[in-house]
Amino acid sequence: MIRAERAEEVxxxxxxADTVHLTLAFIGDVAVSRLPDLVAAAERVKGSSFALALGxxxxxxxxxxxWAGCDEVPAALAQLVRQLAQSLRHAGFRVDRASDDFVPxxxxxxxxxxxxxxxxxxxxxxxxxxxxxxxxxxxxxxxSCYEKLHSxxxxx
Length: 156
Prior knowledge:
The protein has 3 helices and 7 strands. The protein has helices at residues 2-10, 35-43, 75-90; strands spanning 13-14, 50-60, 65-70, 105-110, 125-129, 131-140, 143-153. It is of the alpha+beta class.
């Protein structure tokens, strides 16, 4: 619901519900033959579950996206991102961004026409995270489509 409200506020297109996600590491194209190595690298990562308090909103003008994020990155999330990037690099995968530049966010609106960021979300949305997934992204006429390939639980 918040996506539609924000899209109306900033005159853009609400992100489809099935595409809302938090990217921990973007690694780009991977050969199918390397998928077992990718899964093994992610399985080596151990972390604790956490909750995000999504209350901050932002706007990236370079791609005209409105997003929701958190004021404070939970320590468990920061550790998960660092460990995942390290494990992926150790397995020979290229991680798109440095883990210390990580900005946890969920894209709410695409093709925003009003450059002003939306106001904060009040009250903040508590988003529980008890695992992470490996997904394959494919572009289609409808936009990106995500296929879940593997799930990795986090400790309670």
